[in-house]
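Notebook, student rotation project (T.W.).
Task set for the rotation: take a protein with a known small-molecule partner, predict the structure of the complex, and write up what can be learned from the model alone. Partner molecule chosen: pyridoxal-5'-phosphate. Sequence and SMILES entered below by T.W., checked by me.
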Amino acid sequence: MRVTTEKREALAIEGGPPARKTPLPYGHQSIDEADIQAVVETLRSDWLTTGPKVDEFEEAFAARVGAKYAVSFSSGTAALHGAAFAAGLTAGDEAITSPLSFAATANCVLYQQATPVFADVCADTLNLDPDACAGRITSRTRAVLPVDYGGHPADLDAYMQLADQHRLVVIEDACHALGSQYKGRRVGSIAHMTVFSFHPVKHVTTGEGGMVTTDDGRFAETLRRFRNHGISAEARQRQSSGQWFYEMVLLGFNYRLPDIAAALGISQLHKLEMNLARRKKIAERYEEALTGCGLRLPQVRDDVIPAWHLYPVRIDTSKLPVGRETIFRALRAENIGVNVHYIPIHLHPYYRDRFGFKGGEYPTTERAYEQLISIPMFHGMTDEDVEDVIGAVRKVTHHYLI
Ligand SMILES: *Cc1c(COP(=O)(O)O)cnc(C)c1O
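Predicted structure of the complex:
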């Protein structure tokens, strides 16, 4: 028997009024007047790119995450590519990563002609499972790329230990996890290289942009060259020291972050603390209000402070037998911009065709994928937005709960 005190309301998907009048996205940037002024000032300056704002952003970012070096890139994907290059990944090498991520995490391995190898995720955090990862290590493995899914740090101690034992490079995809902590340490200061993204849905945005942090001076040097055509000294250094001579020492790309974007990044970084606090508050409110809705809410391990990039819930099909697709469409009809993170990488046609994946290879990942829905989570949400999401989720789930 259904045990609920809420009466069944007409769902929007069945022609009833939506829980909210206008669509709410799952993630969105917040831009204030100070951000706009910072960009305008840079537009009026001498340097639109390779100028002082890039250095200033990198220094502020490194200080914020507790790393010695931060090297900016034109996107998180370019930053991943840089890290894969700096790790020395090349044809014949393997790198192990999570199938439950954005495709770029594995694509960066392919950019280097190396082979991405997947291992299944843990059922609680949906982060790469260190034991499964250990089981996939071969003599060809050169790197591991754990992903901080949703903003919950991966089990970094386990990966650093595996790296010591097998001489691997740990590239942490922390695109979800700026500002998170693992065992009292800041993400960005733990792995050999940590990669961040400044896409508009992330905690800090530069429009497009990315960063690699590291304590290793050689990695930092290689990353700087790689993003600048493989050239050993950058334009402004040459200009300020009056030199014309430069040398291209490796095959790099133009992956530079412009000063216009860096200026926005500096201004955005000032608000990171506030943004993290707001996201934490929203997560707490969701947890309080969405318990008992037939959803498995995100689990947080005791030794981490997550950054709450996403709020991914899993449909408990023993309580909501209609399944993910129906709940998803019903919430979209209520004007709640839900999303799914992620279609497992190995199930994309490109990966299926190239590597022969058929589905069934990573059961925990695939089962989670079938149940996952990300409900809106961004620091710019008002209290009313949060209550709209809660109202809609309760309305829809209670309609279908058994
Ligand atoms: C956003 C994201 C990326 C890529 O970042 P872009 O800046 O969009 O290139 C990579 N990995 C994960 C997990 C991401 O969320």
